Fold this protein.
Amino acid sequence: MSKTDDMTTTPGGLGSFEPALAVDKPLTWWKTLSIFWGMLSSTALSRCWPALIVTGIWSSSICVINYYTQGTLSIEPTLITVFGTVLGFIISFRTSSSFERYNEGAKLWSHIVLNCRIFARTVWFHVPGDYRGPIADEITDQDPAKTHKEYAMTLIEKKTVVNLLEAYAVAVKHYLRGEEGIHYEDLYPLVPFLSSRHYSFPAIIPAKNDQIRKLRRRHADNLDHEKSGGAVAQTHEVAVPGSFSRPDNRTFWTDTTTKTIAPSYYDAESLLPAELPPRHGWREAFPFPMFFWILGILKKHFRKLGTDDGRQNFRPSKNNVPLEISMYLTSYIAALQTRGTVGDPTLGVLCATLNHLVETLTGLERILATPIPFSYSSHLWTITVLYCAALPFQLWSTLEWFTIPATVIASLVFYGFLVAGEEIANPFGYDKNDLNMRYLVEKIIRKELHAITATPAPNPAIWAFTRENNFLQVGQYSKENSDKIPTAWVNKGREEILSALHGKSQTI
């Protein structure tokens, strides 16, 4: 077998470090059309096309009436200059404020990435390998191989803490999208122990009850259909102290002291997918959201309290999962402090990093909890609609039939800025212009944390004295030259090294 054949391994094999290079295929008309459609759906045109159609019909009607009545509905274009300038400034301010929220959200997510790196690096490198605790004392009393047991327990503990950092980022992603709970494919395997001991932290960001409820029902119906007649996974009854009870959580907790919690294992098929994008349709294009919003208010006004059957079997969001995970990270820091295994500087770094993570979560909550005031947004939309509706009356005298495309183009400019500002005001959703939180979590945080824990900490006593280390940065260096390798300089002594360093500084 040739060397090339050896490098070609199966996916997931031990030697599959790099995937096989995909052969570039020629673009077909269907693929080109799909790429063009994807680019078009990312623009503001996909969110305001119904308003442009209505504007085109309206301007066409006004032009027809003016044509057959010799311009009876035509007025002087003075309002275009006056109100157009004012409206442009207001829309510019609205778009700028939305972009500030988008930019701040990106900065806060970069802080999450930074603090996850610092916390994981500090835990993996600065926490020593010997474990000191009550469990270790029990093991060492029974097992003579105490060192190996302690190192194994420390590695398990440190890896679990690093997994909690990844779980924190994943939980923040779901929390910002209003997806409550931990039973997701990318979250539950990291925190299976979290389901039995919830803290009663209120969720500042409201959950998307309707969307999550429909997805849970659809997912449960599919599982019931596939597993009809099969055995049901058994749950475990455990005694839980009353201080941990949560009566309003009907999924895992009951009112008695014996709580039914999730199974000790998880079924991948019973978990919700990592991404729950909504089904986009024509209802999301302006001005349909305004109509459905008004319809929802009317339904809510005429509906009696307690008649919403959809909420009877659904538990609203009562817990802040990222904040709960921070409590587990705090307990780890407290355990290190109690055992005395690390010094105060290390504890200070861990506490400061965890505080920054919680501070970042608070900043992200502030972005979503303080939306643009409705009075300002509704007034801006009303003025924009009236301005665009008045354009055909003012443009007919100068443009005549070109009034129709001119009105549509002007409406696209104004409506486009408004819908773009509303879209980026909440940068944590599933829109194509939102922050790619999935990339940040899966491609950056997850891979970096796995890379940190994949190998033991490098030993400077090894890498600093390798033959390849040209620590003096001499020009003609070779590892075969026995006079210039680090071990040779060790034998020469401190004075020779300082003299060599002084001579090199003179030549720079």
